[in-house]
Amino acid sequence: MLFPFYSLSLFLYAALRLLPGLPLSWKVKLAATAFMLLASLYHIISRYILRSLSSPELPGPLLMVQGWLFFALALLCIILALRDVLLLALWLARKAGLPCKLPGSPLRQAGIMVALALGLSAYGVREAVRPPALRSLEITLPQLPAALDGFSIAHITDPHASALLRGPRMRAIVDTVMGASPDLILLSGDIADGAIPERAQDIAPLADLTAPYGVFSCIGNHEYFVDYQARLAYLQGLGITMLPNRHAALRVKDHVLVIAGTTDPVAARYGLPGPDIEAALAYSPESALRILLEHRPGRARENAAKGIALQLSGHTHGGHLIGFDRIVAAYNEGFVSSLYSLGSMQLYVSNGAGLWNGFPVRLGAPSEVTRIVLRAGCASTARRTAPPDARSGV
To answer: Dihedral of the CA atoms 317, 319, 320, 324 (nearest 10)?
Structure first.
């Protein structure tokens, strides 16, 4: 019942705070009310009529229009709320004897607010669907043998191939990664939405991912939503080694590099094993450098205690937009985007290469694929320290 309540709240607030005071005919107000109601039904239509919130099988342009209008309605509510705060401040000022009011007529004010919401939403959808850029960074790991200094990893997370983000976009992602010539390619989940028959052509370009030390992936929450076992088998067939609570030991220049992967907590809904780092690392050499692929970043503190040198995660999509990232961070133990230092472990949370259909917007959180160069040394290059642990109060 969450989505109906959420959608109804957006619709009611926008309609009641925008339309009543405008000098418009009842027919125009009725049409505007119907339009806002239709925009608010995006999630409801996807979940209860199309039977898929994560991957409604509709033409991509239609999904973009739906996302644009829904997010414009949400932005309009935010703008109206800010206006209401300003109106309250002006009312208090007038009570104090200060002559002040908002400039322009109510109709002009409404037009500016609606245009701003529609414009920002259109820009956000455009940023969401455009192919991701390559982001490069160096990460210093104290545990890294000097012989492995300069070892490069391409990190892909959350490409979310879907009816919205089709095969050509996945091809662009693959071409970007291969252009970086990484030594190793790692994916951290949410590769595709929808059933394999619908997504086969969209994820087919992943078969062209190759690197000297292989291509590996953990499991994201969206992997479970439709045909979990068939999905894993299909991805394996594309040359991606899946690591559901498993690891692979690679020999690189006479040193062992352990690549471990976990499952996702949503697995419990389907009677499948949840993330188990102990199982993922079982029988791995304790002296080896350990890199962990875990879709969600929230368990990073626990993983740091297991001798992990580097954790690569996604899931947050960088918070989607400025301001909303603080809410996303609150649900992920404070981790939302970029590089964090947790003692001897480094955590990189990527903004992701794509996003899901339910929120196809990015403002200030651009999509990315990442080229990571590992450096040996003692000093961390992390740009953020770990956020305070709310559980311990530090």
So the answer is: 160
State which amino acid sits at residue 3: F
Of 8-17, 147-156, 254-263, the one with minimum mean pLDDT is: 8-17
DSSP string, 310-329: EEEE-SSGGGSBTTHHHHHH
Q: What's phi and psi for 152, nearest 5 deg?
A: -115, 140
**DSSP state letter for 41:** T
Where is 83: in which H helix or E strand? helix 60-95
pLDDT confidence of residue 156: 98
Domains and CATH numbers, the chain: 2-128 (no CATH), 132-379 (3.60.21.10)
The whole model's pTM is what? 0.91
Q: Which residues contact 181 (CB under 8 A, 6 or more apart)?
A: 152
Rounded distance between C-alpha atoms, residue 384 and residue 43, angstroms = 35
What percent of the chain has a predicted confidence (pLDDT) above 70?
A: 94
CA distance 267 to 54: 16
Closest by CA position to 161, among listed 132, 120, 133, 124: 132
Q: Where are the alpha helices (DSSP H) in 193-283?
A: 196-203, 228-237, 277-281
Question: Cβ distance 217 to 190 under 8 Å?
Answer: no
- CA–CA gap between residue 98 and residue 70 (Å, rounded): 39
According to DSSP H, which parts of 41-186 are helical? 42-44, 60-95, 106-129, 167-179
Which residues are CB-contacts of 16 (< 8 A; sequence separation ≥ 6)?
none
Question: Residue 353: which of 373, 367, 370 has the closest Cα?
Answer: 367
